[in-house]
């Protein structure tokens, strides 16, 4: 979740932010619009959602979607998403966006947000660490599938490490930020170790081959 129009911004107003796909050949992106001050999505006021489809088939992170929020003087909010390379567009119009919550309700929400600010931030950081670990697992899986330089025994070892880590995440989805960070470092260490081992083996083999056939 990211803020596009901050609290107390003047309106009419128009602001944009660019997002990228998370997965290879991602077909669509679901865009959800919320109003509120809390760090976690579920704790904010839901305004609406829409989906941008028919994204080009590319590697993760290679497709850019610009999301624009435009609100007029009457509180009419238009949220538009545009895929930059193809021009594919989707949008949603939300009427009376600034009047969905009463002044009293807004004050109440602001008070609540301030009282749980530290707890919300801690939970946000925990979820970000979990997402980082899941993204690392995904990236390693993809690299194992695509990297033909990896020897089979190293590939199998790395696949086993990734599978074990995925099982751990599924069984420990409520783990702390510190626990997720430990697993991230552990997985990176295993990845680097196997990469170094493979590289060293290849260099040694090439040296031996060169020596063997030297005239």
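-> sequence recovered:
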């Amino acid at each position: 979740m990211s803020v596009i129009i901050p609290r107390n911004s003047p309106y009419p107003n128009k602001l944009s932010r660019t997002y990228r796909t998370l997965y290879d050949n991602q077909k669509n992106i679901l865009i959800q619009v919320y109003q509120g001050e809390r760090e976690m999505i579920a704790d904010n006021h839901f305004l609406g959602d829409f989906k941008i489809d028919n994204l080009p088939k590319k590697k993760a992170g290679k497709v850019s979607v610009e999301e624009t929020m435009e609100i007029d003087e009457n509180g009419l909010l238009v949220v538009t998403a545009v895929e930059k390379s193809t021009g594919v567009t989707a949008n949603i119009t939300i009427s009376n966006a600034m009047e969905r919550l009463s002044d009293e309700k807004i004050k109440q929400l602001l008070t609540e947000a301030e009282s749980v600010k530290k707890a919300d931030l801690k939970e946000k950081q925990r979820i970000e660490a979990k997402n980082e670990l899941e993204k690392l697992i995904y990236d390693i899986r993809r690299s194992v599938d695509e990297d033909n330089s990896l020897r089979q025994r190293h590939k199998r070892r790395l696949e086993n490490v990734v599978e074990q880590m995925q099982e751990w995440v599924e069984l420990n989805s409520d783990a702390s930020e510190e626990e997720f960070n430990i697993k991230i470092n552990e997985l990176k260490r295993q990845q680097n170790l196997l990469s170094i081992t493979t590289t060293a083996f290849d260099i040694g083999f090439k040296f031996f081959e060169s020596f063997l056939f030297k005239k």
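The beta strands are 13-20, 29-35, 45-52, 64-71, 77-83, 89-94.
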